[in-house]
Amino acid sequence: MGIGTLLSTMTASMVNVALPTMATDFNVDLPTAQWIALGFFAAVASLHLSVGRLADIFGRGRLFNSGFLLFGLASLAAGLSPSVEWLIALRIVQAIGLSILQANAFSLLMAVFPEEQRGRAMGYFASIASVGLAIGPLAGGIILHYASWKWMFFCLSPISLCTFVIGVCTIQAIGPGTKQRFDIVSAATMLFWIFPLVFGINRGFILGWTSSITLSSMALSMFFLFVFIRRQQTTNNPLVDPTLFRSFNFLTGILTSYLGFVSLSSVTLLAPFLFQNGLKMPIAQVGLFFSILSVVAAITAILAGRAVDRWGSAKPRTAGLLLMCAGYTSMAFVNPSTGIFLALVSLALTGMGVGFWEAPAINTIMSSIPSDKLGLGGGFVAGSRTLGWATGQPIFGGIFALVVMNLGSEVALSAPQGDQLSGFQITFLFAAIMALLISIFSGISIFRKSAL
Q1: 8 A C-beta contact, residue 104 and residue 55
Q2: 439, 443, 445, 446: CA torsion to nearest 10
Q3: Cα-only R_g, the chain
Q4: Coil/strand/helix, residue 415
Q5: Phi and psi based region of residue 369 (left: phi greater than 0; alpha: psi -120 to 50; beta: remaining)
Q6: Higher confidence at residue 365 or residue 328?
Q7: Average pLDDT for 128-146
């Protein structure tokens, strides 16, 4: 399970570091290059709940193992992509495999660990995810320095395929938790409302929010969201049990997890561009430097897991969001005159915040889910993360592009250094305000006796 989450976070962080290089190689602009990451995140976010529900019905072990096989084959094919369109399509196939791994991992953990150890287990699990985020930029920077970005995908393939063999030998005996039927209509409408939403946000910043493409995409998304909600209220076997949303703890966990990842996407998307274009840092050093965030997060996640077992989720979760706010704020003022020291402080603060926020948010969600719906709970955990990335990246990428282009440049990444620095500053300050508001909402639960 640890290798599965390691692969997913490595993949995401490596590709983000390589986006500037991919944009150059394919001769496309940032909004188009973003779809190498956005298509992946949108597909994963669309499938998490469906995959989690399938695991509850048909069994978690074999379904989990199939994710490694699909991801390994898709990674090999992605490295052979002849065009950006092929790469985006194969990244979506990769996403199907990773959605199976991510959604099932949390339910398997909850099934194995007793209640009094789950906070610590989630802490270690979040730590492994942060290690993947740390290794990804480092490995990506080294690969880009010595070889083509294609080798990022070639290297992931044998790891995944070997782990598939290990998984077949170890966890196939874990069985299903329920005999209910799977609702295909709900799964389809889930897919159809997320993709137009992400596309509409991406196009809105480029074409304008009143353009026909933007409005039609958002209208299509809202229509299928309405259909999805109505379906859950009327079918006998809903994909999502509507009664879950009556729990304050569940809502708190979902919102702080989703919105936290939305805000964090500002750093994961734009910090590599800030270091490369704003500070003129060599590409090999960008990956190494950016990994500081994940290393710090990996260490603090273990501490956060133990804090959850002792004091509950609310306090460490809220403290983490405040630290993330501080990290984004300091990142806004990084420029050549401050050097790399302020960037180092910003990444460290953000990493500490991620470590203290993520594991408690996961524990809040999973502890609010009935035992026969743990797969669905895992889908919510993984879905809140990937939907956060999928919606956050076009939002913050669009804010950056909008600010820079309003200063007189037609292409944001080709703008003068000063204009790009202004774009980074405004975007990170916006993320800091968002993190502050989330921390206030999270802090409310501290004063509720029944809150986790």
Answers
A1: yes
A2: 150
A3: 21
A4: coil
A5: beta
A6: 328
A7: 79
**In one letter, which amino acid is 332?**
A
Assess whether pLDDT exceeds 60 at residue 450.
no
Say how far apart CA 106 and CA 234 lie, in whole Å.
Answer: 28
Q: What is the pLDDT confidence band of residue 451, given thresholds at 50, 70 and 90? A: low
Q: Which of 337, 354, 339 is nearest to 291 (CA)?
A: 354
Cβ–Cβ under 8 Å, residues 84 and 32: yes
Give the CA count within 13 Å in the CB-facing half-sphere of 67: 29
Nearest-angstrom CA–CA distance, 391 and 28: 21
Both tokens of residue 284? Answer: 């090999």
Joined tokens for residue 410: 């037609």
**Is the separation of the CB atoms in 68 and 212 below 8 Å?**
no
Q: Which two tokens stand for residue 421?
A: 């620095």
CA 203 to chain CA centroid, nearest Å: 20
* Rounded-to-integer distance, Cα 4 and Cα 378, Å: 14
Tally the C-alpha atoms within 13 A of residue 384's C-alpha that lie toward its C-beta: 24
> Regarding predicted confidence, which is higher, 26 or 449?
26
Report the distance separating Cα 334 and Cα 422, nearest Å. 10
For residue range 19-60, what is the model confidence (pLDDT) as tens digits?
Answer: 778 888 888 776 677 788 777 877 877 787 788 777 777 766
SS3 for 233-253 is HHCCCCCCCHHHHHCHHHHHH
> Could you say which architecture CATH assigns to the domain 2-182+239-444?
Up-down Bundle (1.20)
CA 256 to chain CA centroid, nearest Å: 13
| Long-range contact set of residues 19-23: C-beta below 8 Å, sequence gap at least 24 | 19/272, 20/272, 20/273, 20/276, 20/277, 20/283, 20/413, 21/144, 21/149, 21/283, 22/84, 22/87, 22/149, 23/413
Distance CA 194, CA 220 (A): 10
Q: Which of 252, 307, 261 is nearest to 102 (CA)?
A: 261
- Residue 348 sits at the vertex; the CA angle it makes with 346 and 350, to the nearest 5 degrees, is 70
